[in-house]
Amino acid sequence: MNVPLLDLKAQYETIKEEIIAVTMEVYQTQRFILGPKAEELERRIARYTQSKYAVGVSSGTDALLASLMSAGIGHGDLVVTSPYTFFSTAGSIARLGAIPVFVDIEPLTYNIDPEKLEKRISIMNAKERSHLKAILPVHLFGQCADMDTILAMAKSLGIVVIEDAAQSIGADYLSSDGSLKRAGSMGTYGCFSFFPSKNLGCFGDGGMVTTNDEEAFQRLKIMRVHGSQPKYYHKVIGGCFRLDDLQAAILLIKLNYLDEWTEKRRENVRIYRELFARKGIEGLEFPFESKGRHIYNQFVIRIGQKRDELKRYLTNQGVGCEVYYPVPLHMQECFRYLDYRPEDCPVSIEAAAKTIALPVYPELRYEQIEYVVEKIDSFYRG
Predict the structure, then answer these.
(1) Nearest-5° Cα angle at 18, 58 to 4
(2) How far apart are CA 160 and CA 100, in angstroms?
(3) Helix (H, G, I), strand (E, B), or coil: what is residue 157?
(4) Start-end of CATH 3.90.1150.10 domains in the chain
(5) Are the beta carbons of 118 and 148 closer than 8 angstroms?
(6) Could you give the angle at which helices 366-380 and 258-279 cross, rounded to 10 degrees?
(7) Digitized pLDDT (tens) for each residue of the chain, 382 residues in all
(8) What backbone phi and psi angles, to 5 degrees, belong to 330?
(9) Residue 296: which of 193, 194, 181, 143 has the closest Cα?
(10) CA 20 to 30 Å from 77, out of 195, 299, 302, 320?
(11) Chain-centre distance for alpha carbon 245
C-alpha cells in the first residue's frame, strides 16, 4: 500500500469543478494582482481569524517580512524567536539586518518556552534591552504558543508581538480569561502562509497578515506595494509583496471547507492514538494538546530510539514521512556568526533527533492509517 505524506490530488478531485469555475472568473476579468478576489479573501480571513484587518501578501515569508518592516525593525535590532521552526522565521529577521535571539522550546508542545523566554530577557544588559524590539512566537504544527505569558511580557517591555501562524490557521487558544482566541489575532501582527501543503493552501505561493491595529494595517498596505502612497510616491522602502487574484480565488473556495478538513485531521489523530494504544508500542510520545484547538498541520510523534532507521523503513514500505526539522536554526551554518552552541537549546536538539511526522491529511482513509501503525509496530517488534 502507498500512503503519501500529503495527497493534494485527492483533495483537488473533491473541489475540481468549483476551482475551474472560479479561476475562469478571474480569466474573464483579467484582474490578476490585488483584484476583487484578493479583497474578498482579506475580508473573509479577517473574520475567520477574529481580526479586524487582513492584508494579502505573496507568501508566508513575505508576511513575516512585511510585518517586521511595518514594525520598524531593522539593522541591529533584536527579535526573540524559536530555533525550532521553518527557516523563514529567523531568515526574515536576519534579512533586515536584525538579530534573531533564539530561546528554546517546550518539550511537549515544541513551541517557545515562556519560562526560558522570561529568563533570557531578564539577563539582557541595558544595551541589549534598548535594541529588543519584538517577540516572534511560532505556533508550530498547528497549536498556539503560550500567548498569555508572551503578550504580558511584551507589554511590560513595550515591544511588539508578531505571531508566526503559518502552520496554524484556525487554531484556538484558551486564554487565561476563559475566552477562545484565534491564532494570528493576539499579537500586533499575525502571519499566515498559503503554501500548498498548509491546511489552507493555494496553487502556488500566497500569504496573509492579520492585525487589529488600524495604523499597522495602513502601513502593511503601503509596505506590500514598494512603500508607495499614493502610487509612484515613496516615503518608505517596501517590497513587492502582493497577492494575486488567481490564488485568492482558489483560497476562497478552499476556505469553505477548511473547518471540515480540520476536523477530519483531528479525527485521523484520534484514530492513530487508538490504534497505537492497541499495539502497546513502547517509547512513542504523541502530540500534547495544551490549550484550545490543535489543527494538526503536521502529526508529529517522538520516537524513543532509531528514528532515522524507522524513517528509512517507512519510506521503503511506501509510507510518506518527514523530519520537521533536522537542524534547529541556532545550529544552521548561516547563523554561525551568532555563536550559539547545541547545548544552548537542548530541547530543540533532542526534538530534531527524535521526532517524525506521519500522514494526517483529511482524505486519509482508515485502512491507510492502520497500515502506517502496522508498519511502525512491525519495525519495533523486529
Answers:
(1) 70
(2) 15
(3) helix
(4) 258-380
(5) no
(6) 40
(7) 999 999 999 999 999 999 999 999 999 999 999 999 999 999 999 999 999 999 999 999 999 999 999 999 999 999 999 999 999 999 999 999 999 999 999 999 999 999 999 999 999 999 999 999 999 999 999 999 999 999 999 999 999 999 999 999 999 999 999 999 999 999 999 999 999 999 999 999 999 999 999 999 999 999 999 999 999 999 999 999 999 999 999 999 999 999 999 999 999 999 999 999 999 988 899 999 888 999 999 999 999 889 999 999 999 999 999 999 999 999 999 999 999 999 999 999 999 999 999 999 999 999 999 999 999 999 998 7
(8) -70, -15
(9) 143
(10) 195
(11) 23
Residues comprising the chain, all counted: 382
Asked: is 258-380 a CATH 3.30.300.20 domain? The reply is no
Per the DSSP assignment, residues forming a β-bridge with 207 are 57, 193
Asked if 223 contacts 235 with a C-beta cutoff of 8 angstroms, the reply is no
Cell 474578498 belongs to residue:
40
CA neighbor of 150 nearest in space, from 210, 92, 103: 103
The H-or-E segment that residue 299 falls in is strand 299-303
DSSP string for 196-262: TTSSS--SS--EEEEES-HHHHHHHHHHTBTTBSSTT-BSS---B-PPBHHHHHHHHHHHTTHHHHH
Cell of 22: 472560479
Residue type, 157: L
Instruction: Please check whether residue 375 is in contact with residue 310, taking contact to mean a CB–CB distance below 8 angstroms.
Output: no
- Asked if 350 contacts 104 with a C-beta cutoff of 8 angstroms, the reply is no
The CATH class of the 8-103+111-255 domain is: alpha beta
DSSP 58-122: S-HHHHHHHHHHHTT--TT-EEEE-SSS-THHHHHHHHTT-EEEE-PBPTTT-SB-HHHHHHHHH
Strand locations in 160-205, DSSP E?
160-164, 172-174, 180-182, 189-193
Cβ contact 243:225 at 8 Å: no
Rounded Cα distance between 195 and 278, Å, is 35
Cell numbers standing for residue 198: 498548509
Q: Sort 155 into a burial class: Cβ within 10 Å, 0-12 / 13-18 / 19+.
A: exposed
Q: How many CB atoms lie within 10 A of CB 60?
A: 27
